[in-house]
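With this grant's support, the team has encoded backbone shapes as discrete tokens. A representative record is reproduced below.
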Amino acid sequence: MASARLPILTVACAVLVNRDGHILVTDRPAGKDMAGLWEFPGGKVEPLESPEAALVRELEEELGIHTATSCLAPCGFASHAYERVNLVLLAFAIRKWQGTPTPREGQRMQWVPVNGLFRLEMPPADLPLLGQIAAIL
């Protein structure tokens, strides 16, 4: 199996839930792989960094919001073998943060009802998360 020989990339993503129960998604900016597809905000876990710490950092960098690792609740897991990497995606539900999410990297964003997630074009790694998120939320 070729995918067994690929490096593993761990990514932490946020399932930000607002007061209406809607989920924040952002699109992948032009110039990135899979540009234009919708995804949950977040990013890769750096060496010696916990997934929770990585997500807190990424949310501040991408959206200008502040949260604490204690506000993150694990809500999903997925893995997908891409051409050059095995991606492991760890999802965390977040209902408490400070600030207003504002795109800082040229991405679009939208708040979507949970059932609306199933109608979005998303990267293959994100798709298994949708049923998990719908079951929990």
